[in-house]
Design brief:
Number of strands: 16
Helix content: 25-40%
Strand content: 15-25%
Distance between the termini: 39 Å
CATH architecture of the largest domain: Alpha-Beta Horseshoe
Mean pLDDT: 79
Order of helices and strands: HHHEHEEEHEEEEHEEHEHEEHEHEHHEH
Number of domains: 3
CATH class of the largest domain: Alpha Beta
Number of helices: 13
Length: 400
């Protein structure tokens, strides 16, 4: 009986597409023979997604890990949804020695760890992995910061509707975690973003090496956007990638330039910027934020470092198909981009178009407004019916 060498089987498994059928394909491979099973297991359990509302799922995983404890070493990425049911799985969530990324989500309702001691007990062994570099938390109240003390390798943090408990922390506490990327998503007022805490002396996160900041906001609260800008101004010397998405209200009220808080002159190594542009000629709004963007780009001290510029555009045009009501500022942007000799991509995403034809016409018009970038072959324009950053980046997790 002929047999494939283990190396060939391993290469075959590496080339299985990562789609919705991946797990089923791997399961099928594991049933071929004992050899295939042993080679497939590290691939099959590399990424585990567990809905804690499904008791059968938790029970099945518990049974597998009990009978085959060596499988724990194969779990590198773990996603636990509906973590309000953490209690029942305490027994089998022992330390996972190879765990690199962990996601904890509680979408149905916010989960208050301060009132659920069993949840803290369940999380302690998971967060003890010395390999853990990426953590994503969603809809959790009073997450004890002390749980992160063992996470010496943690570099990437994503928090969505999260508040932290700092009980037991003080400014003299010596432990620090050096973050490289931070995603901050705010959705409603009572669980606002912890900017003040992140910048306080008791925060255990050292932000001096932060390279990526993504600030998303759907709360519509003016000071949230301003606080994101203030945060960027504090950590700017090391930032290479920035995304900030202002709510409309923070732009419409007062018409002051919130981008001035960013202090672009401090962004010395910035490589990628994603920012929202809004133009509304309606007399009640009369908003055109392109001059703010022009001032921001003009203030960057090292134009040669910028490689990627993405504009998420909320454009309101009453004079379709001529678009003259939103023409102010675009040609100036095009001329300004001549300073950025190393730009590899200028990407414009427009949303909320009335129909596909209007979207196509708007894209064609924008090509005429940005001729320099178009001729350099670095300009791309898309249109959709929703905020692009909400779809593409709210699910962002640092590379794993």
């Amino acid at each position: 009986m002929s047999r494939f060498p283990a190396e060939i089987i391993g290469q075959f498994l590496l080339h299985i597409n990562e789609d919705t059928e991946q797990v089923e394909n791997l399961r099928s491979c594991s049933l071929v023979s004992q050899t295939w099973c042993s080679i497939t297991q590290p691939f099959l359990y590399n990424r585990v997604v567990l809905n804690l509302e499904e008791a059968e799922e938790a029970s099945s995983l518990a049974d597998i890990l009990s009978k085959s404890p060596h499988i724990r070493a194969y779990i590198r990425h773990l996603i636990l949804t509906e973590v309000s049911n953490l209690g029942p799985i305490v027994a089998f969530l022992d330390p996972l020695p190879s765990l690199e990324s962990l996601q904890l989500q509680s979408y149905s309702r916010p989960y208050n760890l301060a009132t659920h001691g069993e949840g803290v007990v369940a999380l302690e062994p998971l967060l003890s992995s010395r390999c853990l570099t990426s953590l994503r938390l969603s809809d959790i109240i009073d997450f004890p910061v002390q749980l992160l003390r063992p996470c010496l390798a943690l570099e990437h943090l994503a928090i969505r509707h999260v508040t932290f408990s700092t009980s037991g922390l003080d400014a003299d506490d010596a432990w620090r975690l050096f973050l490289k990327s931070l995603l901050l998503s705010t959705g409603f007022v009572q669980m606002s973003e912890p900017i003040d805490w992140l910048l306080s002396p008791v925060c255990p996160f050292d932000l001096s090496r932060l390279e990526t900041f993504i600030g998303l906001d759907k709360s519509g609260v003016n000071n949230v956007y301003e606080s994101h800008c203030r945060f960027i101004s504090h950590v700017s010397p090391s930032l290479k990638t920035v995304l900030i998405s202002p709510p409309n209200s923070s732009i419409a009220v007062g018409h002051t330039n919130p981008l001035g808080i960013l202090q672009p002159q401090r962004l010395r190594v910035i490589s990628s910027i994603t920012i929202t542009v809004r133009q509304d000629p309606d007399p009640s709004e009369n908003v055109n934020t392109l001059p703010w963007l022009i001032a921001f780009l003009s203030g960057l001290p090292n134009p040669e470092t910028l490689h990627d510029l993405t504009l998420n555009c909320d454009l309101w045009y009453e004079d379709y198909p001529h678009f003259t009501s939103i023409s102010e500022g675009w040609l100036e942007i095009d001329a300004l981009l001549n300073r950025f000799h190393n730009l590899k991509r200028v990407h414009v995403e427009c949303y909320d178009e009335a129909d596909e034809e209007m979207g196509k016409d708007l894209a064609s018009w924008l090509f005429t407004q940005l001729p320099t970038s178009h001729n350099r072959g670095i300009l791309s324009i898309e249109y959709s019916d929703d905020h692009p950053y909400m779809n593409s980046l709210e699910g962002w997790v640092s590379p794993t």
